[in-house]
Amino acid sequence: MPEKYHITTTPVPPRLPRIGKHGIVDWREDCARCHNCVKKACVYDRHRQEAAYIRNLKYVDFLFFECMGCFSCVQNCTKDLLCLTINSEYEKLGNFYWKPEIIHTTWQQAETAAVPVSGAGYRGKFADHGFDAMWTDMSEIVRPTRDGIHGREYISTSVDIGRKPSYLTFDENRMAANPPAIVDIPMPLIIDMNPSEFTLPQLESFIIEAVRLTDLVAVIDTGKWPDALNEDQMRQVEKVLPHIAFHLNPDAPEIPKEILRQTRIVEIPAGGDALKRMQELKATCPGMIVSVRVDLDEGGVDRAIESANAGAELLHVVADFNGNEIGVKNPRFIKDMIRDIHLALIKGGKRDEVTLIAGGGIALPEHMAKALLCGADLVSTYLPLLIALECRLCDTCRPGLVCPARLETIDVAYGVGRMRNLIAAWHLQLIELMGAMGMREARRLRGDVGRAMFFEELEEEIFGTLFGSRKRA
Amino acid sequence: MERFSVQEKELKDILPENTLKTRVPQVEVSRAVKLAPSRYRNEIAKYIIYRNDDCIRCGKCAELCPHHVHVLKPGYKYFAMPKSYLCTGRACEKTDYFCISQCPQKALRMVENPMIKALGDYRWTSDMLLATWKMAETGAPPPEEYEYDYLVGQSGGGFDRLRFKFPEKPPIELSDDEIDTSIPLNRRDDGRPQIQIDVPWYGGGMSFGSVSNATQLSKVRAAVAWNTFSCSGEGGYMERMRPYDDHMITQVATGLFGVREETIQRVPIIEFKYAQGAKPGLGGHLLGDKNTPAVAKIREAVVGISLFSPFPFHSVYSIEDHMKHLDWIKHINRRALLSTKVSTPTDVDMVAVGSYSAGTHIIHLDGGYGGTGAAPDIAKKNIAMPIEYAVAKVHKFLVDEGAREKVTLIASGGIRTAHDIAKAIALGADGVVVGTSELIALGCVRCSRCSAGRGCPRGIATTDPGLVTQMDLAWGTQRIINLYSAWRKDLIGILKRFGMRSVRELVGRSDLLMHLDFTNDVKTR
To answer: Can you point out the beta strands (E) in B275-373?
Structure first.
């Protein structure tokens, strides 16, 4: 068996007290001081831990919220003095899209690198906005292993970046031309640039180290070069560069050619003379794959299709960080825009000539699989890596404001370890989904809507025949 | 009570001698409703009543309150703490026995319990949990004055957006006794027993390991009382189940834990578990901490090792292979009915018709939002379609194929109330399988910690020797018996309003349902 993609992980505990969902309020007054107080019976020993936590309090702005919410102490207290409460800090995490549950599970995965497991069934909405309006398929009995998998160890999550010619041409038993360069990446994920509102010192160096350890690629703005590397990375720059895709910022100084040649992918903004620039870069750096970055604002989908038709080999389409079309009153969600681009490329006979990377709103590992099913070859994301560092998306990343997650104090081992763990957990979860689908290769997920079920379609197909037309979107 | 099981003399004709030798006398359990209050000192209440020091202990509140919230025990100087969970809250304000306004000292105060916010979720709302506990306590649907909004959850789709279109008055007046809630499980006319259960549901598979002995036994004892079934789950067949063999379904799952010819021969129904709703396409998980010596012994495994069942059955890659499985069991147990438990992929209709053609008696669809045990969060939320779609889809397909009358269709995965049961039946199921609701009746609060460490802190889904002592078998049995009783009353209430004499008349009557998000202008009947 060939060597399998494996990310070696170790647990990286949080630096700060956990912001859990539940806490116990103890009114104390009228306490009977039972010798067998219910607090002693806590299965998780949380009351004792809380007492110890308060005795050694390091952060006055962090209370103890690690209660598991089982109500046992609340319901057994002889004087009914305890009350289970929801942590208001927990409820404030994230925003309407990056919900507290997403932030919380990301922290958990960044700590343990494990697949989150829980009991008692699903607790959420039937269906919701965006990626939550689709389900992935599974296989049983009539086609239990559609790809002939006989175990998860046979599942490959690798995908290719680059143009795939639809046929080869030969000239007297030799290939007439070399096939285009391809970058084989072990997981359908690249790490995108952090926008300026989510920055902190050393973030790029952590990301670069994390992608080096996980064999992925990170997009780095040339405006941050060479400050993006720490001293260790500078010493081993040749090991780092294959994992960097420079975004050629027109306002930043040019990257030296000898540096650029050591990378495999480079990114340029769409529009203007982008395709001419692409040709120049390919002439300067043969074997380089040039990505054309298209912001999915109004007309973004059309521009992406136009770029592909004009000869782009790699499209990186990016919605806003909530997955919505940028600056539009009634925005489309990224999954729908991916579908539109994917289908247009198929219709134009261009699909295999273009690699499609989709970013924006990729918050959970299932979003990665679902984006692929909608038609992307791979996805890009950045916020989950920041959240892995205990960021709360509180929107106070500005000079002069204090970061409640103390992100300016993190060290390399912590930062890189948490990012690596998160990527490993995402990889494991992608395998879970693919195993259930009976799929052996992530490459074959692309656009395979036969492995997906969409809320709107199921409603129409099944309930539509029983109850008429659907009234609301 | 009419028993469905094959008579002893018939058993001698069809069961091997060795199996008969090991058969033990079967236990009867009464289905009588008895009060089974919460096993916790402070039952969670929607409203809290506070009494302050101004109380002069005149006793007027105790005298007035019909719900017995206020108790002054004989010989005691002070009132006991108010039993807030019995209080009907806002509904009581309009009455002349509202203790808060009637107290001469104004010593009582009522507030909405702030803790309610921490109880429940979109699928199981706090009102639904409180109502289920009330039903498990009393054996009847909660009185309207409690104002529990428990008939639907807040998931925003599926059952929670479906409503019955009740006629203004029933087409015929029926008494409760005239309404039949039984369903047959064998529709194949193949010479195997004509098993009939008294209520259109049975208990889902929960293995020893995932839940405690007392939980498993409470489930099956309630099944005996209500002449229905419970399922062993995939963790093997406990010896303690043998007095209830005639009401047990034993599971043959992909891990084949504890599957032996002898256990297969004991029971009237054998279920092949191909997949389960909580983790479709992934196989069972029992995390290491719950694999105690007792669990490891029955599963023939090593203590403390996480047990992951494979997916799929590696002996089944086609309907023909599935048929071989069924034939194998049919030969081993000549009295058994066979159930095929599958999840809900996009081609669930093809799976169902294939399973029917392979010879199964029961097609059990387990939708994506159900499950009681440990499951990856990513699987719970994202894989396979919800049961509401699958039931309607499979029912229609089986009707179109002319196979619907020959097979029993059972739905599970997110069935929470009698109204969910009735809706599933109206969408096309013959009956349902329930799991989470039974655990709620036993005091589960859905904290989702069943899988971690020592398991359920409330002593339900655990095999930890210390934690399991929290629950008593007689109490657990009664709570589930009571819940079933309350559900049956609710179900009869629904059938009565439609003037239906049998729950079988409701099967596939989606024309009696409306969906709040649709135009509801399809004429289907």
So the answer is: 285-286, 307-308, 337-342, 362-366
Q: Which of B385, B378, B22, B412 is nearest to B229 (CA)?
A: B412
Closest CB to B314: pick one of A150, A432, A453: A150
Question: Distance between CA atoms of A59 and A61, rounded to whole angstroms?
Answer: 5
* Interface size, chain A vs chain B, as Cβ–Cβ contacts under 8 Å: 278
Q: Structure tokens of A23?
A: 């806490």
Residues of chain A found within 8 Å of residue B439, distances taken between Cβ atoms: 120
Q: How many CA atoms lie within 13 A of B62 on its CB side?
A: 16
C-beta neighbour count of A265 within 10 angstroms:
25
A350, two tokens: 């261009």
Number of CB atoms found within 10 A of residue A70's CB: 23
Inter-residue contact A236 to A243 (CB < 8 Å): no
Per-residue pLDDT tens digits for B384-439: 999 999 999 999 999 999 999 999 999 999 999 999 999 999 999 999 999 999 99
* Measured distance CA(B486)–CA(A18) in Å, rounded: 42
State the Cα–Cα distance between residues A279 and A262, nearest whole angstrom. 18
| Closest alpha carbon to B53 in A83, A82, A75, A30 | A30
Cβ distance B342 to A145 less than 8 Å, yes or no, reads no
Chain A residues in contact with B350 by the CB 8 A cut-off are: 142
Q: Look up residue B480 and give its two tokens.
A: 């589930």
> CA A203, CA A375: separation in Å to the nearest integer?
30
For the record, the structure tokens of A264 come out as: 């495999």
CB contact under 8 A, B351 and A141: yes
Report how far residue B500's alpha carbon sits from residue B503's, in angstroms, rounded to the nearest whole number.
7
Mind listing the pLDDT tens digit for each residue in B159-170?
Answer: 999 999 999 999
Chain centre distance of CA A248: 23
Among A26, A126, A147, pick the best mutation site for testing chain B contact (most B Cβ within 10 A).
Answer: A126
Q: Is beta strand A159-161 parallel, antiparallel or unpaired with respect to A183-185? A: antiparallel
8 A C-beta contact, residue A128 and residue A232: no
ipTM beyond 0.90?
yes
d(CA B469, CA B466): 6
State which residue of chain B sits closest to A432, comparing Cα positions: B282
Q: What are phi and psi of A241, to 5 degrees?
A: -60, -35
C-alpha B335/C-alpha B437 separation (Å) is: 30
Output the pTM of the full model.
Answer: 0.94
The SS3 call for residue B487 is helix
